[in-house]
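Thread title: Can someone regenerate the structure for this chain?

I was given the following input by a collaborator and told the matching structure tokens would be attached. They weren't. Posting the sequence so someone can regenerate them.
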Amino acid sequence: MPIAQDLMDEMIRKRAAEAVQAQRDKVRDLTGTALACLGWSVLGVACILWSAHTTNLAFGKAAFYGGLGIGFSGIIFTLLAAYRRGEKRGDW
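Best answer:
Regenerated them for you:
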């Protein structure tokens, strides 16, 4: 028995609205992820710049390598978390 046309149209409209909402959620999450990555990189660069500014060699080395660690690990973990959220939502 075929589905009635009015029921089919309602189902199509509902799925189209859900697709728009899913796309909006994905874009919002990826925008937040990009901003978080930008924040981590700014924080890492700030530590590296502070290492160039300080006069103490031990503090300079600690700030430099800390800046590298903060920048790279923050970006990596942010991207991994975004990937896990996308997997859970079914984006990819």
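The first helix runs from residue 5 to 53.
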